[in-house]
Design brief:
By secondary structure, the protein is of the alpha+beta class. The protein has helices spanning 50-68, 81-94, 116-120, 160-176, 198-205, 226-234, and strands at 19-23, 26-30, 38-43, 71-77, 109-111, 135-140, 146-152, 190-192, 212-216, 219-222.
């Protein structure tokens, strides 16, 4: 009986699995080539499919916005390089969608016909498809550590406002040593880390610091200006 190669799915906090690959922008050594930058590594099921086309047009249209936040984009599907090139050319020359047209995809799109990378990253889910990668999204920090993982099924296009929000929230949490509450966006209050003892918690609740508001001992928030957040992030290009 033939043994199947088994890959453990990477988890948040793990080092991003290493690989070398051919892409539409040349060969890459991942994640070493991206040290010092955030990276969004994402997979799509197949070239020349409508949901994927809408997503690539959106990613390409937002690439500068991601780049300005010190984040590079890297795409992947299990199609071959020539299929990738033909599809991206078709997008640029023929597709107009939601006001987007003449869209040129300049970030790398990985050829993964062996499914080596897709398997390393748990992008192949047999219950969904054994021949196509699901819509996986990996946020990888400048040290090559996986910080967030989001999976979508084949039929569901991604929310790109949320992908950008996650990127900014991760960077804000790192920069200001805070956590971000539900639906947080730059300019909203952030969560102050929980006090380490009851005494510290009581002291915090009784503090006259107007910037901190304690709803209870375990739940304190403070103001964090939008400009302060964005300036701290955008400056790290």
């Amino acid at each position: 009986m033939e043994e199947k190669e088994v890959f453990a799915m990477p988890r948040i906090g793990d080092k991003a699995p290493e690989f070398k690959a051919v892409t539409t922008q040349g060969e890459i050594n991942f994640p070493a080539d991206y040290k010092g930058s955030w990276v969004i590594l994402f997979s799509h099921p197949a070239d020349f499919t409508p949901v994927c086309t809408s997503e690539f047009m959106t990613f390409a249209s937002m690439e500068k916005q991601f780049n300005d936040a010190n984040c590079k984009l890297v795409g992947l599907s299990v199609d071959g390089l020539y299929s990738h090139i033909a599809w991206l050319r078709t997008i640029k020359e023929k597709i107009e969608y939601k006001g987007m047209k003449n869209v040129e995809v300049t970030f790398p799109l990985i050829e993964d016909i062996t499914m080596n990378v897709a398997k390393k990253y748990g992008m192949m889910m047999p219950g969904e498809s054994s021949t196509k990668a699901v819509r996986a999204v990996f946020f990888i920090d400048p040290q090559g550590i996986i910080r967030t993982i989001i999976y979508y099924p084949l039929s569901l296009g991604r929310n790109f406002d949320e992908l950008y929000r996650v990127l900014i929230a991760l960077q804000a949490a790192d920069e200001f040593k805070v956590a971000t509450p539900a639906d947080w966006r730059p300019g909203d209050d952030v969560i102050v880390p929980t006090a380490g003892s009851c005494g510290v918690a009581k002291e915090r609740m009784e503090s006259k610091d107007d910037s901190v508001k304690c709803h209870d001992w375990f739940f304190c928030t403070k103001k964090l200006d939008k400009e302060k957040v964005l300036n701290a992030i955008i400056k790290k290009k």
